[in-house]
Amino acid sequence: MKSMHSRQFALMASMVLISFILFGGAFAALSFHYTLQEKQDSLERNAGFIAEFTSVALTQGLTVDNAYFQSYVTSISSISDATILLAETDGRIVYSSNSSLLDREVPAAMLAQLRQSGHYNGMSNLGGLFRDLRYVSGLPITVTLLGQETTAGVVFVAAETDSIMEMWRSLVLIFIFTALVVVFIASILSSVTSLYQTKPLKEMAEATRKFAHGDFEVRVNTDGRRDEIGELAASFNNMAES
């Protein structure tokens, strides 16, 4: 037969564990969404900077072969830890921070989505340009000639998912460590509380057995308790006095 202490401890531990599982699941989902959204916003900002800078450079007669232009784009690539691709409107890559991708082509489906919505955001390996999936953000490069705005090319910024997952894993590990510490402390407090609550009941059970054997001098120590268990212990002592 399970004791009241073990049942109460199991109930408290189960409640704490279930609460943390539910809270942990919600935290993991929200933190992953936040981490992904933060990376997406960063890539979009960088794509916007490069698209604007390229537009100004083309307007001033510079090309992607210009040393100053390449230095600027390479700096953003290093800071953002992402691969930057500049392609013509037909998808042919004319500049890349990864030189092995030069003269390759961006998938037509990505170009079509960029033209339709004005931007591209998603997970892709760019039609096999990368061996693994990467988070990609793309924007058109527009220039104004003779008062008319035209699309001169597209820019894509691709970041490895490892950096995103590593950030998310770090957040999850911190949460798990904190949760384990809280569960450990809650378990100790629950055990102490359960023992405190059941001690008078055990004393009353022992006193009842002694009463049955003719020992009427036994009393239960109330320890100055004023809760229901304390009242029960006081009533037991009053009964013994009677």
Number of helices: 5
> For the terminal residues, how far apart are their CA atoms?
33 Å
Q: How many β strands by DSSP? A: 5
Question: What's the oligomerization state?
Answer: single chain
Helices and strands, in N-to-C order? HHEEHEEEHH
Coarse structural class: alpha+beta
Helicity, as a percent range: 55-70%
Strand content: 15-25%
Trace the largest sheet across and list its strands: 2-1-5-4-3
Query: What do the pLDDT scores average to?
Result: 79
Uncertain residue ranges: none
Largest sheet: 5 strands, antiparallel
Principal-axis shape equals: rod-shaped
The Cα radius of gyration reads 35 Å
Which short descriptors sum up this protein?
single chain; 242 residues; alpha+beta; five-stranded antiparallel beta sheet; 5 helices; rod-shaped
Please provide a written account of the structure:
With 242 residues, this protein is α+β, with helices and mostly antiparallel strands. It has helices at 4-59, 67-80, 108-117, 161-212, 228-241; strands spanning 83-87, 93-96, 120-124, 134-145, 148-160. It has a five-stranded antiparallel beta sheet with strand order 2-1-5-4-3, sandwiched between helices. β1 (83-87) and β2 form a beta hairpin. α1 packs antiparallel against α2 (67-80), α1 packs antiparallel against α4 (161-212) and α4 runs parallel beside α5. It is rod-shaped and about 110 Å long. The relative contact order is 0.12.
